[in-house]
Design brief:
heterodimer, A: mainly beta, seven-stranded mixed sheet, four-stranded antiparallel sheet, 11 strands, B: mainly beta
Chain lengths: ~110, ~120
């Protein structure tokens, strides 16, 4: 039981390049999330998927797209990376989105955009 | 506006002493409250939550938190700190984005440092 896994662990991009961050969970959770973590700002929600087949914008969605590929997998795509997207990205999952269940987090992807 | 606040960026405690990490919130409706811990270069780990019931909630690693409705607080506590408790701690709360949609928002984090 691996929990939430993310790939890659580290990535360096040049401005304008694109990439996809992968996330998978094996806990049969319905809801999945993408956050970014920046110093002094806590975690900010980028996008979430309350259930398979649905995605919704979070607090900071601009510059990102997501795909809920199936119940297990939720990917985050940067179409044209910008230095402002330098951050640590975390994927998380929870049983449901209604708020009473805790979230389980992956180990993170550290992204640098030069 | 609905929010969660951690008023201290850093808390320093000597090993063996009690510790408190503060969290206050402002939400509409009944609050669902969570504490998470983040060790260096790791994702967040769930510690405990308050949904309903007893105001004193017990969680992992000997931590507990007290829900205080009148003070809108949910402070994290531990009777005797360990050096291994040194980490970044996040309070989180469920807020309502609309009448039917909710989301979790996180505080900015408090760095807990336990000195030997």
């Amino acid at each position: 039981n691996a929990g939430v896994t993310q790939t890659p662990k580290f990535q360096v991009l040049k401005t304008g390049q694109s990439m996809t961050l992968q996330c998978a969970q094996d806990m049969n959770h319905n809801s999945m999330y993408w956050y970014r973590q920046d110093p002094g700002m806590g975690l900010r929600l980028i996008y979430y998927s309350a259930s398979e087949g649905t995605t919704d914008k979070g607090e900071v969605p601009n510059g990102y797209n997501v795909s809920r590929l199936n119940k297990r997998e939720f990917s985050l795509r940067l179409e044209s990376a910008a230095p402002s997207q330098t951050s640590v990205y975390f994927c998380a999952s929870s049983r449901t989105h209604e708020g009473s269940y805790e979230q389980y987090f992956g180990p993170g992807t550290r992204l640098t955009v030069t | 506006a609905q929010s969660v606040a951690q008023p201290e960026d850093q808390v320093n405690v000597a090993e063996g002493n009690p510790l408190t990490v503060k969290c206050t919130y402002s939400v509409s409706g009944n609050p669902y409250l969570f504490w998470y811990v983040q060790y260096p270069n790791r994702g967040l780990q769930f510690l405990l939550k308050y949904i309903t019931g007893d105001n004193l909630v017990k969680g992992s690693y000997g931590f507990e938190a007290e829900f205080n409705k009148s003070q809108t607080s949910f402070h994290l506590k531990k009777p005797s700190a360990l050096v291994s408790d040194s980490a970044l701690y996040f309070c989180a709360v469920r807020v309502f984005a609309s009448s039917s949609a909710s989301k979790i928002i996180f505080g900015s984090g408090t760095r807990l440092s336990i000195r030997p």
